[in-house]
């Protein structure tokens, strides 16, 4: 809303001068709006990233980390209002999301995402995430003998992944939320063989030690894992990367069902509606070729 108002600044001022029925904003208020849009655009970008159909829960920790980092940046022309607002947002983020770094499943999902790995975790958090994955895989292999041959299971994908050293093909105006992630090298170092007590840990360490930017940031991580040489880790990928970070996709599904039941089609059987919804949301898997 503020971005749109700032975009139409000249039109708003002109309308106020010609008709005189609307009090125009002062130059100081326009400056405040400009600064607000600069700070809040990162939250808008994060909201979009979380709401994509193919978004994974592994994006939560990196987004919180990046938002926290952007709120700590100070510029010379910031006034007291902006400083106070950024401080309030920073405190609110820490209060609302302090628990995420205690969720081992979230940390495990983060390091299994080839775009993030250990970049947004410290050494203690990385150890917890590794322990979570190794514990799951060990239990899986010991207790699920029927699934020992599932290394070749394919992960459902909607688009091919792209090998590239570039980070994104999405054009953004000026600076973006992901700039600090893209421009900071990965600090992860491969652990020595003496610290690798099990084969699972060795596989996990080898995966983490690979270059971080193998994929474009908007590429399909599931297609990447389909062709990854780390077959042992695919079981963990199926478990930890399958969850959506928000309820947006399910709400969209309910909205789509409401659009199918129109006044002229209110006698459709539930079975027919389920088939229509299944077709609508899965036809993209086949690139609309049917």
From TrEMBL:
InterPro entries: HATC_C_dom, RNaseH-like_sf, ZnF_BED_domain_contain
Comp. bias (Basic and acidic residues): 173-182
Keywords: Metal-binding, Nucleus, Zinc, Zinc-finger
Domain spans labelled HAT C-terminal dimerisation: 214-279
GO MF annotations, alphabetized: protein dimerization activity; zinc ion binding
Region annotation Disordered: where it falls in the sequence: 173-198
GO cellular component: nucleus
Location in the cell: Nucleus
Top-level lineage group: Eukaryota
Keyword presence, Metal-binding: yes
Annotated Pfam families: Dimer_Tnp_hAT
Name assigned to this protein: HAT C-terminal dimerisation domain-containing protein
Organism ancestry: Eukaryota, Metazoa, Ecdysozoa, Arthropoda, Hexapoda
